[in-house]
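TA notes, week 10

Several of you asked for a full example with nothing omitted. So below is the full record: structure tokens for the whole chain, then the designed sequence directly under it. When grading your own attempts, check the secondary structure regions first.
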């Protein structure tokens, strides 16, 4: 089936929707809603609306569409590409839609949890772990203060996506409010593109629109860039990762999986970056029980050392080898029969690459594993601390962070390309992250305005290089407002126009998340 009918929103309103009007009122009392982790500056908005029900969200969107007022959708505000930063018009937050609605075994024996879009990721994890049978939700985005609607809208992932994949893999149904106030309830496996690679949406008044799946080919790597497009694709995948540009997600049903009985966590340290890379490729090939592979370069370890020194005994950063110039963090599933074999293999590979278990940090308990993970999470905090210092002198600075993934056989080439451009320029930088998926974050931390401009040029250069070798310009953070120019590098102007056709079919006045994903000139084109 390629056709789906819209439905009316759930009408469970018990009180009027809270709406704050006037830019001065919003700025003075609710400025937190004008911020996210991107640190972009917001424009002036006149309306801030708090939806507590689907009906409230639907009525508000319908009114804004009729009045041609842009609406930016906000939820957890944990994004780093400015998606929730409004440029003008109105801001709609769904964070108060925060109820877990149901959990249990679905047809086919799969455990699922259904919840509203404003549920904290942390609370979804807790609900999952409290269910009988040892289940968990495996998508572990770094920010547990993220809200689930946002994780679906951006197809969020995390450290364990190496083993379990990104959010898309675990979404079983969504409810989405469209710009006209009508709702799509989409269940995975029910609506697929037809032979012409299209869908039909039938509105409650009988009007029918057609959506044509873009013809571009997505890279075969972890990817969060633009609209999902494949032949015979499932309609639900069009909305996952669409960054709120096609509709507002109000409910999600997630599948869960069995939690590993035992997890071993290790951070191994190496005298040189090449040693760490050689170890990684050996371990990835042989250690099939691996759940996580994360990489730290010398710049990242130095930032962690500075953070620990500054914070003293209260630091979440543990003591580690002062001579190390690189590290690999691993998590591996084990049982009583496999523990000795895994440990022996690890030790063998470490020794071959000038390291050992003696200098590693290791944990078998959940408590100690949390300490090791805290070191990984402390690195982005340290990066932000460093750039904050530089901003005191140059307030317009921000870090330049590339979110690039490439095919596995191109990873070393991409790393060498980064260094060939960054090192001669004398930048302060670090290269770290999800090496298991050939997805490393290169962060340049400019110290003045000249470095800032040069770093921006390099980011575009990196994007072009990644695309040329089969990679993506954004593997997990999406496009938002920060990466508009890179999406054209990836799909070309024709690809962008095909996406815009879908958006205009569902959102004719282009009110939803204006400024995200698409440049203004394409939205305004006739």
């Amino acid at each position: 089936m390629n056709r789906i009918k819209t439905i009316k929103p759930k009408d469970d309103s018990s009180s009027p929707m809270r709406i704050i009007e006037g830019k001065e009122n919003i700025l003075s009392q609710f400025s937190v809603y004008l911020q996210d982790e991107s640190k972009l500056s917001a424009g002036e908005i006149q309306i801030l609306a708090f939806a507590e029900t689907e009906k409230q969200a639907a009525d508000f969107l319908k009114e804004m569409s009729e009045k041609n007022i842009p609406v930016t959708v906000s939820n957890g505000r944990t994004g780093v590409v400015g998606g929730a930063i409004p440029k003008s018009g109105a801001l709609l937050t769904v964070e108060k839609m925060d109820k877990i609605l149901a959990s249990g075994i679905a047809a086919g024996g799969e455990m699922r949890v259904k919840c509203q879009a404003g549920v904290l990721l942390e609370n979804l994890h807790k609900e999952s772990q409290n269910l009988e049978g040892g289940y968990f939700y495996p998508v572990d985005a770094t920010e547990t203060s993220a809200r689930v609607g946002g994780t679906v809208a951006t197809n969020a992932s995390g450290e364990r996506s190496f083993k379990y994949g990104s959010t898309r893999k675990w979404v079983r149904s969504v409810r989405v409010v469209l710009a006209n106030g009508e709702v799509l309830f989409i269940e995975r496996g029910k609506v697929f593109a037809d032979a012409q690679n299209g869908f039909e949406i039938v509105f409650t008044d009988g009007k029918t629109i057609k959506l044509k799946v873009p013809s571009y080919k997505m890279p075969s790597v972890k990817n969060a860039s633009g609209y999902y497009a494949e032949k015979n694709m499932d309609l639900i995948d069009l909305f996952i990762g669409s960054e709120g540009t096609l509709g507002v997600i109000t409910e999600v049903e997630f599948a869960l999986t069995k939690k590993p009985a035992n997890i071993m966590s290790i951070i191994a340290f190496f005298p040189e970056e090449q040693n760490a890379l050689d170890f990684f490729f050996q371990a990835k090939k042989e250690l099939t029980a691996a759940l996580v592979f994360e990489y730290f370069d010398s710049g990242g370890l130095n930032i962690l050392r500075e953070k620990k020194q500054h914070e003293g005994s209260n630091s979440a950063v543990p003591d580690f080898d002062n001579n190390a110039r690189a590290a690999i963090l691993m998590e591996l599933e084990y049982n009583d029969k496999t523990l000795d074999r895994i440990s022996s293999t690890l030790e063998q590979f470490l020794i071959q690459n000038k390291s050992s278990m003696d200098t590693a940090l290791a944990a078998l308990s959940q408590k100690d594993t949390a300490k090791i993970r805290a070191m990984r999470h402390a690195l982005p905090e340290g990066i932000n601390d460093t750039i904050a210092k530089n901003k005191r002198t140059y307030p317009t600075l921000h870090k330049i962070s590339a979110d690039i993934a490439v095919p596995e056989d191109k990873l070393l080439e991409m790393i060498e390309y980064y260094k060939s451009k960054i090192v001669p320029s004398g930048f302060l930088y670090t290269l770290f992250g999800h090496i298991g998926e050939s997805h490393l974050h290169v962060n340049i931390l400019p110290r003045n305005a000249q470095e800032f401009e040069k770093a921006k040029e390099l980011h575009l250069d990196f994007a072009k290089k990644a695309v040329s070798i089969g990679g993506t310009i954004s593997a997990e953070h999406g496009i938002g407002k920060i990466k508009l120019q890179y999406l054209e590098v990836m799909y070309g102007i024709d690809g962008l126009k095909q996406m815009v056709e879908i958006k205009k079919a569902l959102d004719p006045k282009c009110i939803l998340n204006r400024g995200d994903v698409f440049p203004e000139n394409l939205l305004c084109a006739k």
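Residues 159 and 181 are 36 Å apart (CA to CA). Use that as a sanity check on your answer.
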